[in-house]
Every structure is written in structure tokens, then in C-alpha cells.
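Lab notebook: predicted structure, single chain.

Context: the supervisor wants predicted structures on file for every construct in the current expression panel, including those that have not yet been purified. This is the next one on the list. No modifications to the sequence; it matches the entry in the shared construct table.
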Amino acid sequence: MAPSTASAITLNINGEKHTLPVDHRTTLLDALRERLDLTGTKKGCDHGQCGACTVLLDGRRAVSCLQLAVAAEGREITTIEGVAEGERLHPVQQAFLDLDGYQCGYCTPGQICSAIAVIEEHAAGWPSAVTGDVRPEAGASPLTAEEIRERMSGNLCRCGAYVAIVQAVARAAEAEAQAADADADAEEAA
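Prediction complete. Output recorded below exactly as produced.
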């Protein structure tokens, strides 16, 4: 008897559980788009090289075209459809909108998901390839345009909106840092 090549899996996407039968070779990207109608995640190169399909897996960015859906079971998946809080846009979404960090918009969902993770990685003190001093005692380096470009380098924009994308990531990082400072001040005052 041949082993089965399909399974019923449960994916936790944007806080909702979805159970569906999938072929074991189905990518997370195809499960999202073809099976669950979550078409915000885009199919670009289908080889993990362009970043258009970037989603967050347990808060870390992942190109969903290289992730098997069965391997994502039990993980927290966030797509572009799940980053806003109701009608209120995520700070990264708002910055992209305010600064025209998109042109045709095709790469924008992947850019935004990557930017969210980039800001969190930087805030956690993770160095990049261009970080000058990577010693833990040096503390977090500033999130400069060079840092942002390096950290976002896995996301391509065929329209060339890179200048506005870098500005949007910087603005969103600043807004999130200010919000974190305000939360810390409020907690300290209480």
C-alpha cells in the first residue's frame, strides 16, 4: 500500500484556524491564494527570490512560496490581510500610504510584511550585514537608510519605489519607537 500524499491540516492564519486537505507538496503560498482566497500575498518569482509572497511565521518573515503548507501547521501565520487592527492601519501600512511607498502595488504586501519584521528585528538588537559594531555591549545601531536597504534587500520592486519604501520603513520604525516609549512612560506612571 502506497503512503498517502495528502493530509488534512489546520493553519492558524491571522488569528483564525482553517482546516483543509492539502497535497503534501502544496506551498503555503498556494494554500493561501488558491485554497483560502487570501490573495493579498502575491506570487512573483515562485523561487524565493523576489519577496512578493512574504508573510510572517511566528512573527518572522518567510517567503511563502518556499514554505510547505504542512510545515506551517501549528505556527502563527500573518498575511497582509491580518496586519491592520480593524479599520486602523498598521503603522507600516500608514507610512507606505503617506509616503507613496508603492507604485503598481504588486510587491507592497510582501514589502509591508518584511518591514514589520525588519523593525522588530532591529528593535530586538539583531545586527545586519552593514551593522558597524555587532558586539552585544554596543547596543542597537541606528536604523539608517543603509540598514533599512540591507535588511529589506530580499524584497524587489520592479517599479523602483525604493526611496519611498526606505522612507516609509524609517517613519514606521520611528512611530513604533515613540509608541513603545509612551507605553513605557504610562506603565511607569501607573
